[in-house]
Design goal:
Number of domains: 1
Helix content: 40-55%
Radius of gyration: 16 Å
Number of helices: 7
Largest sheet: 7 strands, mixed
Oligomer: single chain
Structural class: alpha+beta
CATH class: Alpha Beta
Strand content: 15-25%
Strand order of the largest sheet: 1-2-3-4-5-7-6
Shape: globular
Number of strands: 7
CATH architecture: 3-Layer(aba) Sandwich
Length: about 190
């Protein structure tokens, strides 16, 4: 795994937009019109926030990526405020803002750990043409090792039921489920 650079942003956005095009959790947050454009805007926000307050990694062959946030590092700044406002007005919309804030509050409550201990895996994705070849699993294993070195606990959620056994295979455990009109499955590293 290699740290992403700012110049990798466009290829990462393309990869994540294609990977999450039909993801129920992602679609839940977005205005309905212009779905692919809004997914790309959401991924741009996640990239920027994780680049500022976490880590962005690529697989060695650059066909997979992971966006990690350290919630304790996120702080108010003019840049973060502008990113949040752009997310609200171009991606989520005022009509869906309450729903998005409720979802984020549920996620924080489900994690129920001090924010300083969290290695929050926002997104992990593999180029759809390269899935099922072990690339994502290798990246996830490297992320687990990175979180261990940093003494932070991995937390993530997925709305894709077929990913549950994959996460379990890579050492994570499902500890909760919440229904938003779709099931959101919560995971943490077993030793976390």
């Amino acid at each position: 795994m290699i740290p992403a650079r700012q110049q990798d942003k466009e290829s990462i956005l393309e990869l994540l937009t294609n990977t999450f095009a039909e993801n129920r959790s992602v679609l839940y947050l977005l205005k309905k019109r212009g779905k692919n454009k809004r997914i790309r805007q959401l991924m741009a926000y996640a990239f920027d926030i994780c680049f500022l307050f976490g880590k962005v990694y690529l697989s060695d062959d650059r066909t997979a990526c992971a966006l990690i946030l350290f919630p304790d590092k996120k702080h108010f700044s003019l840049k973060s405020l502008l990113l949040d406002l752009r997310l609200i007005f171009t991606c989520i919309g005022l009509f869906h803002l309450r729903k998005a804030l409720r979802r984020e509050a549920v996620i924080r409550k489900m994690q129920a750990v001090p924010v300083t201990e969290v290695y929050y895996l926002c997104f992990i994705g593999v180029n759809p043409a390269r899935q099922h070849q072990g690339i994502g699993g290798k990246l996830l294993d490297e992320i687990v090792q990175d979180s261990y070195r940093m003494n932070r606990k991995i937390y993530l959620e997925t709305s894709t039921a077929s990913n549950i056994s994959w996460y379990i295979h890579h050492g994570l455990e499902q500890y909760a489920e919440f229904n938003f009109g779709y099931s959101l499955y919560f995971f943490k590293y077993r030793n976390g």
